[in-house]
Design a protein that fits this description.
With about 220 residues, this protein is mainly α. It is built from 12 helices and no strands. α3 packs antiparallel against α11, α5 packs parallel to α11 and α8 packs antiparallel against α9.
Amino acid sequence: MASGDRLSRLPAWSSHWLGYRSSPPRTQPIYIVYLWPFVGAFVGMSILQAVFEQNSYFTKRHVPPIIASYGASAVLCYGNIDTPLAQPRALVGGHFVGALTGLCITKLFSLLPTEQRFNSLRWLAGSLSTALAISLMQVTKTTHPPAGATALLVAVDPTIYALSWYYLPVVLLSSTLVLVSALLVNNIQRRYPTFWITPATPASAAALSASTAPNELMEDPEMHV
């Protein structure tokens, strides 16, 4: 069952804030296109910094006020909200894949005999982390361009590297906060997300697939029982 079908079973007051619309959204005036990305990015980035900078639980663990790559995520998740790169699967999955890849690669490099040798090869760890993260995001269908920086930061930013495996829950929480704020702001006069896990098959494409299948079966004698 498609996510849209599941959302349609929820009350309208709740499904609206999860991106469901019973009919295609109308074209918005140009001022809407410019206004809400500004509001969304301001609100979202403020929430992230408030949580991580004002909470003693995180400050005692030397968590930075914001992971820099989420500034780039704001461009997608509040601005270009219709692109597949901005959808929840890409946002949450991409950053997690990037963080995990960066940690694994950089920790392997940290096994070098001396810290001096490790520091001299951080550039290589960062390059390899970013490249591998891109490939893994493509495989898992979670491509989110800012997540390349999430992988890179582990190798090149000592503050991020010092978080060690605690970087993973910080990234997951950051992604969740961005997602929640995007759902609230983007659904006031726009629609977000366009899909949660996989994009819906267009009705015309589904009809074409259904109509061509019987013809293919008749034309290929090997398909007959």
